[in-house]
TrEMBL record:
It comes from Jiangella asiatica. InterPro entries: Gfo/Idh/MocA-like_OxRdtase_N, Gfo/Idh/MocA_Oxidoreductase, GFO_IDH_MocA-like_dom, NAD(P)-bd_dom_sf. It comes from the Bacteria. This is Gfo/Idh/MocA family oxidoreductase. Residues 342-362 are annotated as: Disordered. Residues 7-120 form the Gfo/Idh/MocA-like oxidoreductase N-terminal domain. Pfam families: GFO_IDH_MocA, GFO_IDH_MocA_C3. One of its GO terms (molecular function) is nucleotide binding. Residues 138-250 form the GFO/IDH/MocA-like oxidoreductase domain. Transmembrane segments: none annotated. SUPFAM superfamilies: Glyceraldehyde-3-phosphate dehydrogenase-like, C-terminal domain, NAD(P)-binding Rossmann-fold domains. Signal peptide: none annotated.
Amino acid sequence: MSRDERIRTAIVGTGLIAGVGHLPALRELSGDVDVVAAVDVDRERVNGFADQWGIRGRFTELTAMLAAESPDLVIVATPPSIHPDHTVEALEAGAWVWCEKPPALSLAEYDIMTAAERDGGPYAAVVFQLRFGAGARHHRELLASGSLGRPLAAHCQTTWYRNPAYFEPEWRGNFRGDGGPAMALGIHQIDLMLSMLGPWQEVSAFAATSSHDIDTDDVSTAVVRFESGALATVMTSAVSPAPVSHLRIDTELATVRLTHLYRYRNADWTCTPSEDVDEQVAAGWANPYPDERTGHLAQLRPLIANIRAGERPETSGDGGRAAVELITSLYKSAFTGQTVKRGDVSTDDPFYHRLDGGRGHD
């Protein structure tokens, strides 16, 4: 694709995240993208959304939109249970995909999605915007370079509050609808942790339904061992009145901390040196990147570059699968009481096909 051509873009699903996340980012890069269509099963809603954002094409079916508009990029912002179908259909029509989290509700579904990709594109990228912020980029570089020494311990926390009304839609609060809090809420912070600490080795977990009348858990906790030797605790909750997202990584020479809720700025990160680190050395760890509130825009920029170059995006393929595999293994451990190693959930494992291993309600 020529760098002078605008990328013809369509969005499928016109709910909250489309309006507060995707469209503002697309408008910011309007010189590179042209939003040609919106799709929603609710005609009144898609018309209102299209009127608000000045979008010409309005459709109630993805198939009809793909045939009429031939988009280069399809943004999938529908409920999670239909992400795989929409992603595969768009890929088979020749469009790249940017899919909201969680991309799929099982490893089987995720692998079906990636099987529809082609070498050189189109590819399906997952919306994991937290790893693209300036703070994450800077501290990931410090960790990768060895400047902070070996990672030793970490804590990944997504403790939010969701009231009963949140779970009223039939697709929420069950493993076939939203996948439970670790998948529906914690996946962003979990992906950020994985992007910074690298491959994990094994996980032991517990999960409980402590407060809500739902079919999934509403709180889970896990201990993860990484290939580096680092140990991490991972906690996800939908029952925490004081909501926070937190990532802490303790290394040989420093403690890196991020505290925020849904988005962060550079000031939300700290890097505290140990008492043995020289002040001038620690001063060299300062973040040189411009401050920017994390959001979809930070990920959309490199995605556009990937599309133009025909290169696999960072959060596609194995890059998008890592968090899904860890969460799947977390639930397998919680349901079976066993420690689960990375790669243990193979195609003949019931947890490969369902997050609850077929134990829950349909």
